[in-house]
What does this fold into?
Amino acid sequence: MAKDTKERILAAALDMFSQNGYAGTNIRELAAAVGLVKSSMYKHFESKEEIWNVLLDQMIAYYGERFGSAERLPPIPDTLEELVTMTMGMVSFTVHDENVVKTRKLLTIEQFRDDRARALATKHFLTGLTDIFAPIFSGMMDKGLLRRDDPAMLAFAYTAPISALIHLCDREPEKETEAIGRIEAFSRHFIAVYGEKKGSEGP
It folds into this structure.
């Protein structure tokens, strides 16, 4: 029961932090959102700061398990078309998973206040994507699917526009279909430019 209560508190905290920010969320309102009084919250967490840090730990693990990371790379594609399919699957998860969307909004709000949020925002919006795609592209070069180039620079060139369009989905949800279509078009443009001819023919 205590574990369930802690999970409900963290879920409510994610909702409130992503909407109101850390400073705009108070313990009394957070407690009320899960049917508790303020004093009862301290049976589960010592402070709002502890809730914040445990929530970030939870979301780092959640994202890494479901999306991937430099330590949990997806399989290297065997064809150029598989790169498009993999990319669009990752984009769909990122855009549609409610916990990930809320975490992205939370980091966007808090990156200018909190050092940890700033570091996580940099990782999840920029460097982490490069760290995932650089070894993927290196592996695809070894398979003869992509022409030889600097994998890290290629990964940066590939992921930066995709990340920007994902943020557009957050800001203007009505443009989601357009943004996702542009991501797929960009992915196909990328393989037209960097793909080796034999890679486009499939296995």
About this structure: Residues 115-142 form the longest helix (28 residues). Residues 46 and 176 are 40 Å apart (CA to CA).
